[in-house]
Amino acid sequence: MNLLKKCCSCFRKKTDGVPPTSTSHQLSDPTTGFKGQPRLPTFAVPKRYDIQLKPDLAACKFEGIVSIVVDIVAETRFIVLNAAAQLHINSDSVHFSDPNSNKVFEKPKVGKVEADEILVLEFSETLPKGMGVLTIGFEGVLNDKMKGFYISTYDHNGEKKNMAVTQFEPAYARQCFPCWDEPSFKAKFNITLLDVPSELVTLSNMPVDEEELNGNLKTVYYQESPVMSTYLVAVVIGLFDYVEDYTPDGIKVRVYSQVGKANQGKFALHVALQTLGFYKDYFQMPYSLPKLDMVAIPDFAAGAMENYGLVTYREKDLLFDDHHSAAANKQRVATVVAHELAPQWFGNLVTMEWWTDLWLKEGFATWMSYMAKDKLFPEWKIWTQFFDHESSEGLRLDGLAESHPIEVEVNHASEINEIYDTISYKKGASIIQMLKGYVGGPHFQNSLATYIKRHAWSNARTNDLWAVLKEECNEPTIDKIMNSWTKQEGYPVLSVKMKNQTLEIKQSRFLYAGYRDRRQWIIPITCCCDDYDSLISLLMEKKSETYDIKDLLSNITDPARSWIKLNVEQIGFFRVKYDDGLAAKLRYAIEHKCLSVTDRLGILDDSFALCMALEMSLTSLLTFMAAYREELEHTVLSNLIKVI
Predict the structure, then answer these.
(1) Angle at which helices 428-439 and 441-455 pack, to 10 degrees?
(2) For residues 181-205, b (16+ Cβ closer than 10 Å) or e, as one string?
(3) Residues contributing to the annotated binding site for Zn(2+)
(4) Which one of 117, 169, 340, 407 is the catalytic residue?
(5) In this structure, what is the dihedral angle of CA atoms 69, 74, 76, 82, given to the nearest 10 degrees?
(6) 520-557: pLDDT as tens digits
């Protein structure tokens, strides 16, 4: 086995996994053995980046130099990191300095595995263990692909202008500078922008530390960041107006927009200030940076991106015009702002170790945005919208045979974008809501606060969250319960019938295709009878179970018309199929407005899905729909129209 192949067999091990080195052994191709590897090796770990970028907005190109403080944790001649194929490396500039001996290791063999975006540096001598500084010069193109370091265009006084923007999530920082472009390699960042036209606004994650003017050009130095992942690094350069305000803690918050549109940022500014305060209280930890900038970008691929301290948005998702924008736009802005600020804690401060756990930030960001909106705008009845926009959509797509688990194995950076989907966002948010309902709101909140404190400035996996919940909630089976929801695709449909004073419930996987498999879930179930004061909670652990509910039925005054509703307020991520007798009583409850808006909506959603899956006849569906003939709630009516 040659040296590099032996190295690759130990990729993800620490000091005991770094292969032996030989100063006499040389390879003609330094990339041999590194091709097709899913993750970077860990025998060299970045601690701090000093990045100097010199962008040329007119020529749409940039050049730069990066000096990276690297901890060599085992003797090796190789440093392996990420660099995209389109990033040109100046091989003559590459060197490694040992501060202890003042020795400089120069002119390594430089190789690229372009398909895997890996840069391999092979030095002629063994690098000493401990801290050293790796320096690399590079050049690149400001592309028009809305990823990496790219150009966005806008009009200013009738003239077309360029702005430079970064979008590094999930793995595009490597298009801008050589780096360890994986979320587990957290480091500090010192960013400098060189020779930028002095009239332009320049933004990065941290506040400006110093600015030097040289004629009509300027060099801008930013304060050092706390440790963070490369995908959160950000730079924006262009002409902007802004509105600003401060939180009670003194955090400066600004909303940047194109010149002349500053007033359209006032609503987003208000939402951001209130949301930062809410998240501080909920997570029991203050926002961790000295400023927060939010910028409206004309050309932006995603809805928004939660870069640490510098959040970027599509214009329509940040700006709101009181005179011309619709009310739906106002809710959209509030949703997106609240969504992007949640990862400042649950994503940026505590970061997933690898993209398999993407849902830890995106599912929680989706769910937390509703928590914030409910606090700021209670008149919006936001939890009905949560079921309509998140849970219902998640149920629809997860009912397809082609779905995937929330925790899906990501084997290569090229696969990451495939999991930015409804399952990670909407199903992830929905099972969080279900979990909160199971353990209780206060226990859940305290658990999240403990999780953040325990893993702040570091990385975590899904199991780390379950471990905290087990401790804080005294629920030793939380991981077993939740693994049934995150590690397998799909969800159950519960078939329910009443016999004497017992409920008989069977679970099977819901699929629109109609066939079933052997999968099962551990299901937290809520149930009420005749009113919402009689709520009980059940935990279904088998394929079929029987529950004695005589206590629940003891207060019934009219047995002929009493109704039973499972999955109260649609808090669980499953569907319910009632037998004919229970269904008839629910129709009565719907007709007489005994059920909440969310429950009326949920029954309609389940009924339509069951009909589509051939689990309910069209006649039964139409009979159910007749119970809504006097419905007045917009959300329910709009879904009735969709069914029709």
Answers:
(1) 120
(2) bbbbbbbebbbbbbebeeebbbbbb
(3) 339, 362
(4) 340
(5) -50
(6) 999 999 999 999 988 999 999 999 999 998 888 877 77
Q: Which two tokens mark 273? A: 């200030």
pLDDT interval class at 613 (50, 70, 90):
very high
From CA 24, how far away is CA 261, in angstroms rounded? 64
Helices 462-473 and 478-486: crossing angle in degrees, nearest 10, is: 150
3-state secondary structure 490-525: CCEEEEEEEECCEEEEEEEECCCCCCCCCCCCCEEE
Other Cβ atoms less than 10 A from the Cβ of 170: the count is: 20
| Joined tokens for residue 86 | 């389109």
Topology (CATH) of 492-643 = Immunoglobulin-like (2.60.40)
| Predicted pLDDT at 168 | 98
240-344 and 3-231 share a CATH fold: no
Structure tokens at 475: 């629920």
Q: Is 407 a catalytic residue?
A: no
How much is the pLDDT for 226? 98
pTM of the model: 0.93
Run of H or E including 112: strand 109-113
Output the six-digit token pair for 635. 């959300």
Spatial CB neighbours of 72, under 8 Å, sequence gap ≥ 6: 43, 44, 127, 128, 129, 130, 131, 132
Task: Determine the pLDDT at residue 558.
Answer: 76
- Superfamily name and number for 240-344: Neutral Protease Domain 2 (1.10.390.10)
Cα separation of 81 and 42, whole Å? 10
Helix (H) or strand (E) run with residue 271 in it? helix 266-283
Q: Residue with structure tokens 């979008």?
A: 167
Beta bridge partners of residue 625, listed in sequence order? none
Domain spans of the chain? Answer: 3-231, 240-344, 350-486, 492-643
CA torsion 157-160-166-168 (nearest 10°) is 130
pLDDT of 19 over the 80 cut: no
Task: Name the token pair of 125.
Answer: 């001598």
The tokens of 315 are what? Answer: 């214009």
* Three-state DSSP state, 59: coil
Structure confidence at residue 36 as a pLDDT band (50, 70, 90): low
In sequence order, the β-bridge partners of residue 81 are 119
CA gap 439, 445 in Å, rounded: 10
CATH placement of domain 3-231: 2.60.40.1730
Structure-block tokens of residue 105: 């290791």
- For domain 350-486, which architecture applies? Orthogonal Bundle (1.10)
